[in-house]
Inverse folding.
């Protein structure tokens, strides 16, 4: 949804995937000039690969959307170190390291936009999601710090904290759990991926005085 929204704004989009290469190519086919980059952002090598691919193409990077994430739900006392490491490596280290590398392309031009996708869970907490919530809360803090450091280069850094959005990640929830969630949402529905993508497109193209902010989009579930 983010790729499609940015393509409509006139960007040439690099569609990143880890394992869903077929789906990524389908997205790229719908966006003129788009191309696919496959890499595991839980690894340093994966982020380095993306850096080198963009460098080969001239390094003309205007917008970075950090959206790659996984969820390993588990009660606190049964959560494993393995789950902690893979979640943190993907959700947090991947964001930090990819931003660290790719921001250099923007610094040379003295302009750029970085949009980090966080979560409402970073602010409300949620049973069985201690690791996921920690990773997303750290992203919001990283957003504020990066915004301060990169402001002198004309780079705006913001975070979007979606609530419960109708995606593959939420489709696996039981109907009972979905009902419990919707009871906490004043609008009484899940959000659409396109609604989050519209906010991404706004921050990528407009929002010229927005930086270091966390934008909440959750149907009234949490006000920030």
């Amino acid at each position: 949804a983010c790729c499609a929204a940015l393509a409509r704004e006139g960007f040439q989009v690099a569609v990143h995937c880890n394992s869903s290469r077929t789906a990524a190519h389908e997205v790229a086919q719908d966006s003129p000039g788009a191309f696919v980059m496959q890499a595991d952002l839980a690894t340093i090598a994966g982020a380095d690969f993306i850096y080198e691919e963009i460098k080969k193409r001239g390094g003309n990077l205007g917008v970075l959307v950090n959206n790659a994430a996984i969820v390993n739900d588990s009660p606190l006392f049964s959560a494993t170190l393995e789950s902690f490491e893979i979640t943190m490596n993907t959700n947090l280290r991947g964001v930090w390291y990819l931003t660290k590398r790719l921001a250099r392309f923007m610094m040379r031009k003295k302009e750029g936009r970085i949009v980090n996708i966080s979560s409402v869970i970073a602010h409300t907490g949620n049973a069985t999601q201690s690791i996921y919530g920690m990773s997303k809360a750290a992203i919001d803090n990283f957003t504020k710090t990066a915004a301060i450091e990169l402001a002198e280069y004309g780079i705006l850094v913001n975070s979007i904290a979606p609530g419960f959005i109708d995606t593959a990640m939420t489709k696996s929830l039981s109907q009972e759990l979905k009902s419990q969630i919707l009871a906490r949402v004043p609008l009484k529905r899940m959000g659409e991926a396109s609604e989050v993508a519209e906010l991404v497109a706004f921050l990528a193209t407009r929002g010229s005085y927005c930086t270091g902010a966390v934008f909440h989009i959750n149907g009234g579930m949490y006000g920030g």
About this structure: The radius of gyration is 17 Å.
